[in-house]
Design goal:
The complex is a heterodimer of chains A (about 450) and B (about 290). Chain A is built from 14 helices and 18 strands. Chain A is α+β, with helices and mostly antiparallel strands. In chain A, the strands form five sheets. Chain A has a five-stranded mixed beta sheet, with helices on both faces. Chain A is globular and about 100 Å long. Chain B is built from eight helices and 14 strands. In chain B, the strands form three sheets. Chain B has a nine-stranded mixed beta sheet, covered by helices on one side. A three-stranded mixed beta sheet of chain B has the order 2-5-4, covered by helices on one side. In chain B, strands 1-3 form a two-stranded antiparallel ribbon. The radius of gyration of chain B is 43 Å and the shape is elongated. The chains are: A alpha+beta (about 450), B alpha/beta (about 290).
């Protein structure tokens, strides 16, 4: 755990260095596309008001100066499956974003959705020595959380204090300076497979870049597509990507749960490809042009040219009705949504005061998705698209890019994590005693 | 599955590792600045330096510049053709024209009015000078001459001073300026105002005053006809001479055979009789005591 603490701190230091240089790259590794934004931070941020929030919620401090996406290669289910291919995809995206920005970028913040993320809720409690809560006490209480055994091959990606309670008062966001006897905290910890993070770090290193931060893409998508009161009152963001569908639940502006379903738009495409006996590329085209989830009488007469280049005239001239296409797509989408439902139920989403669900991601653009989702997931469903950030190209404002935009927000104003606080002095106890002894030996 | 060994060169949209590194290298801030600013600047500066390294070319360029400059400033509108001098006597006028550092016709831009002014004010007879260039191409010089007020007989020169004591010109002969009062003594020119006030006080005997002598650079003697002199004190000389005048009025002092009236000690005025007269005075006093010789 301390090794991770060190590496996360190193990444934070990198992020600080990048902020001083003023340029940082944002890299989202998805199963369908690899997106890259180059952000320029030039200190336009106005003074923070009493709520700790500026008029644009911290989005005015940076602007996008370069943007590029490329078809994803070597990435499946949000995990790197082929290092060389993934590296090429990152290079392509980064180079075109860089040449648009006309600036060399050395620091990158990356996100991915795979690695089977698992959420843990941790609690810790400490007594306060002199009644006044200091930063040191917060570090203590964070260190006192009983970390569960999350397995050998896994690594902590996020560890965010979600809530502080002082004596009987709960729901404090910043207990510093308050007076009490015992301080307790709730920590949300997200672990992913170690291999995925290491592959990512290695890929980024191979591209001569420094990793300045890693985020989970459901978290980033939630940051971008949930509006402020949804984040405050509680909502789930469902990012329907190509290879994975990821879920994040927000409450009181903190992520409290994240999970990933390894089903996505690619599976729908593959179903169409198999069902209509067409290549995957054609199936993708048919899906995006004619796809739907609710059949009407009109759709029976709406014939779609399947096309083909086999040379067999009969085979190449086939047509299917739109109803047939919907008949192929709908069961798969229903399966995905059922799976999401199961994950939400497992997370206890039904106990939250607000049941808002926001669908985003490329696969959420299928017509009729909101209707179908509200049947399966609950009444309060809406389609979400990312917030506007400064100078974001129009092509990147769709729901396909919500993870990318969310990651920019994450880069601009990251949430406090466990490793942002100093290691409590007690941990140094033994070492410092030894150091003191050595000092005595040397001087007497 | 794709063959892991790439045997055929398939075209790949991704930049190769080296192309990627090259792009990044070219985008590095220092190199960008060098290419976009440093190299062009160096080329331009180098070319200019190479061209200018030859003396002939430099002179040629300087010549072109000079020609252009002269052709503009020597336009007829800017030329000065005439010097007009007002308020100077004919002799001074000639002197001014002699010393004026102006070679007519001349461009206005080449005239240094400050210099002309300093040359003019260095001329002794000139108190004030005002110079302006008029629209019609004339240098208008308005001169205020120093007015001769005193003749100062020095150890071996005779100088004309104005009433502030400033030197005006040398005089050859006392009779060139018969109307001017004469002063003498070293440092007398510094005390001209005092001399002036003494003379003003001595107006009733003005026809008998031959001159003033500044003694020891501290006080004045008034020399009268018949080798008479009045020794004035350092302080309040005017008051002293007024006292003498009062004495003269009441006692007819200066008409007697007195050679020196010594007023240097104000509480004890002293008179001296000329040594060759002293016998006569004593005789007269012995013969006619009732007549009160003094």
């Amino acid at each position: 755990m301390s090794e991770l603490y060190e590496s996360q701190r190193a990444m934070r230091a990198m992020r600080k260095a990048a902020m001083q240089r003023g340029v940082i790259a944002i890299l989202d590794l998805g199963s369908t596309k690899v997106g890259c934004l180059v952000l320029r931070f030039d200190g336009m941020e106005p003074a923070i008001d009493a709520d700790g929030i500026t008029s644009l919620a911290g989005q005015s401090g940076f602007r996008v100066i370069g943007a590029a996406t490329t078809r994803s290669r070597g990435i499946e289910f949000g995990e790197i499956s082929s290092m060389a291919e993934a590296e090429r995809a990152i290079r392509t995206a980064l180079q075109s974003a860089q040449s648009m920005a006309k600036v060399r970028v050395d620091h990158v913040i990356a996100s991915f959705s795979g690695g089977s993320p698992r959420s843990y809720g941790l609690t810790g409690e400490v007594g306060i020595e002199n009644q006044l809560v200091t930063e040191q006490d917060i570090a203590h209480v964070l260190a006192s959380c009983d970390v569960p055994d999350y397995g050998a091959g896994r690594e902590v990606l996020h560890a965010q204090p979600v809530n502080f309670a002082l004596d009987h008062r709960s729901g404090l966001s910043d207990p510093r300076g308050q007076i009490g006897h015992s301080l307790s905290t709730d920590l949300h910890m997200l672990t992913v497979d170690q291999k995925v993070i290491r592959d990512l770090a290695y890929c980024v290193k191979r591209c001569d870049l420094e990793l300045a931060g890693v985020a989970s893409s459901p978290y980033a998508a939630g940051l971008a597509s949930l509006v402020e009161d949804e984040q405050e009152l509680g909502a789930a963001c469902i990012d329907m990507g190509g290879g994975t569908t990821s879920i994040s639940i927000f409450m009181k502006k903190h992520m409290i749960f994240a999970d990933t379903v390894c089903l996505g738009g690619d599976h729908v495409t593959r179903d169409i490809s198999m069902g209509l006996q067409v290549p995957v590329a054609t199936a993708e085209k048919i899906k995006t042009r004619n796809g739907g989830l609710y059949a009407t009488g009109m759709d029976d007469r709406d014939m779609i040219e399947v096309g083909g280049e086999t040379g067999d005239w009969e085979h190449d001239r086939r047509t299917v009705s739109r109803t047939e296409l919907i008949g192929i797509m709908r069961p798969r989408v229903e399966e995905i949504l059922e799976e999401v439902r199961a994950r939400l139920d497992a997370a206890g989403f039904s106990h939250l005061p607000s049941q808002q669900i926001v669908l985003t991601g490329g696969a959420s653009q299928v017509p009729g998705m909101d209707t179908l989702a509200s049947r399966i997931l609950g009444q309060q469903v809406r389609l979400g698209r990312p917030l506007r950030i400064h100078r974001l190209p129009q092509a990147y404002s769709g729901p396909t890019c919500s993870a990318l935009v969310g990651l920019s927000l994450f880069a601009a104003s990251p949430q406090d994590e466990w490793w942002d606080f100093e290691v409590p002095a007690q941990r140094y106890g033994q070492k410092s005693l030894r150091r003191a002894l050595r000092w005595f030996k040397e001087n007497w | 599955m794709l063959p892991l060994m790439s045997r055929s060169q398939r075209s790949d949209p991704a930049p190769s590792r080296w192309a990627y590194r090259m792009t990044r290298f070219m985008l590095s801030p220092f190199l960008r600045r060098t290419v976009y600013f440093g190299i062009p600047t160096a080329v331009v500066v180098g070319a200019v330096a190479l061209y200018a390294s030859d003396v002939e070319r430099r002179e040629h360029i300087a010549g072109i510049y000079q020609d252009a400059y002269r052709s503009i400033i020597e336009r007829p509108e800017f030329m000065v053709k005439v010097v007009a001098i007002h308020g100077a006597s004919p002799a001074l006028d000639l002197e001014i024209r002699d010393v004026l550092p102006v070679d007519l016709p001349m461009s206005q831009f080449d005239l240094d009015l400050q210099e002309i002014h300093s040359v003019l004010t260095e001329l002794d007879p000139i108190a004030k000078a005002r110079i302006q260039i008029t629209q019609s191409g004339t240098i208008q010089i308005d001169v205020e001459e120093r007015q001769p007020a005193f003749l100062w007989r020095n150890r071996d020169t005779l100088e004309v001073l104005d009433d502030s004591g400033a030197f005006v010109r040398f005089a050859v002969n006392r009779m060139d300026y018969p109307n001017l009062p004469l002063i003498a003594g070293e440092g007398a020119d510094t005390q001209v105002p005092q001399a002036k006030s003494i003379l003003a006080a001595a107006r009733p005997i003005a026809d008998r005053v031959r001159g003033l002598v500044y003694v020891g650079e501290r006080r004045w003697n008034v020399l009268l006809e018949n080798d008479q002199s009045i020794l004035l004190p350092e302080r309040n000389p005017v008051q002293a001479i007024e006292r003498v005048l009062v004495l003269d009025q009441t006692q007819d002092l200066l008409a007697r055979k007195v050679s020196v009236v010594d007023m240097r000690l104000s509480q004890r005025p002293t008179i001296r009789i000329a040594p060759d007269q002293i016998d006569q005075v004593i005789d007269t006093s012995l013969t006619s005591t009732e007549n009160d010789p003094l």
